[in-house]
Design brief:
This protein is mainly beta. Helices cover 0% and strands 58% of the residues.
Amino acid sequence: QVQLVESGGGLVQVGKSLKLSCAASGITLDAYSLAWFRQAPGKEREGVSCIYSSNGRTWYSDSVKGRFTIAGDNAKNAVYLQMNSLKPEDTAVYYCAAIEFCGVSGPYGMDYWGEGTLVNVSS
């Protein structure tokens, strides 16, 4: 049974940092590319960042570029999202996903999803 479990969400003030973690079981993450998505209230789910497992190439949405950093740890079968300089518009449920490919335009082929973790940025 495949499981992706996110953690690290919570309430944080504007300008502060938060690090999300995603632990996988039932799959080995080095066989996939990995991604973080988010869904804000009343909005569609959007890709935030992904990392291509073969060469470590990363992609970030324009809204988080320069503030967020994605990293994978194959030894721990985990992926992380370091979020700095948080803004109120970053408030959302964040999901990790094991995907087929992380391209120059973002993630493709979402195979497995976690249940999400809520990030709430207060002003």
